């Protein structure tokens, strides 16, 4: 697990052995079963999570009971309800496991401490947040500007293994289409 985290960090910044040992000491290991919740709407969000293996989905359920999938999170991705995490408030999202998952967790306080102690880790987290913001902006623009078929094609081009790992109903929800429409896309 430590090798995966270190490789992930070193995609952006180089760390010494002692810096990595300190960084790693601020994380805790967490295992979840398929369908188990990581974050539930209405609960306080105090941790951010790095996915070692497995697959999760972050979703919002509206007042009518319709689930809207905001994000999938797979290996080497970070996930939490960021609005709740950053403001230290209750979650508006649910995050649950599509597959059994293994995660590393860092608390809000430990992340603040780490960033204050190691400025290269502050830079790392800032870059990850910036890249996450870019991805979210691209997703919103795709939803606003592209038809459903193009959104499907873009998703399959970016994440080709996702269709094998995620039930079609969830992919359809993520794309904002019906399951039947998605089946037509995947058949052609």
What does this 3D model show about the protein?
The protein has 188 residues and is α+β, with helices and mostly antiparallel strands. It has 9 helices and 8 strands. The protein has helices at 2-9, 17-25, 82-87, 108-117, 119-145, 148-158, 162-165, 168-175, 179-187, and strands at 27-32, 37-39, 47-53, 56-61, 67-73, 78-79, 94-97, 101-107. The strands form 2 sheets. The protein has a 4-stranded antiparallel beta sheet with strand order 1-8-3-6. It has a 4-stranded antiparallel beta sheet with strand order 2-7-4-5. Helix 8 packs across helix 9.
List the helices and strands and how they pair.
Layout: H1 2-9, H2 17-25, E1 27-32, E2 37-39, E3 47-53, E4 56-61, E5 67-73, E6 78-79, H3 82-87, E7 94-97, E8 101-107, H4 108-117, H5 119-145, H6 148-158, H7 162-165, H8 168-175, H9 179-187
Antiparallel strand pairs: 1-8, 2-7, 3-6, 3-8, 4-5, 4-7
Helix pairs in contact: 4-5, 8-9
């Amino acid at each position: 697990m430590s090798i995966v985290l270190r490789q992930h960090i070193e995609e952006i910044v180089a760390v010494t052995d002692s810096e990595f040992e300190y960084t790693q000491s601020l994380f805790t290991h967490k295992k979840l079963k398929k369908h188990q919740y990581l974050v539930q709407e209405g609960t306080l969000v105090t941790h951010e999570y790095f996915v070692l293996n497995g697959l999760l989905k972050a979703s919002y359920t509206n007042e009518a009971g319709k689930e809207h999938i905001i994000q999938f999170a797979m290996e080497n991705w970070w996930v939490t309800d960021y609005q709740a995490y950053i403001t230290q408030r209750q979650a508006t999202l649910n995050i649950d496991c599509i597959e059994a998952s293994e995660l590393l967790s860092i608390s809000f306080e430990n992340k603040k401490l780490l960033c204050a102690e190691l400025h290269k880790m502050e830079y790392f987290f800032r870059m990850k947040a910036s890249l996450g913001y870019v991805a979210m902006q691209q997703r919103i623009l795709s939803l606003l500007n592209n038809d459903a078929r193009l959104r499907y094609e873009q998703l399959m081009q970016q994440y080709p293994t996702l269709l094998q790992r995620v039930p079609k109903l969830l992919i359809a929800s993520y794309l904002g289409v019906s399951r039947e429409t998605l089946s037509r896309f995947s058949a052609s």
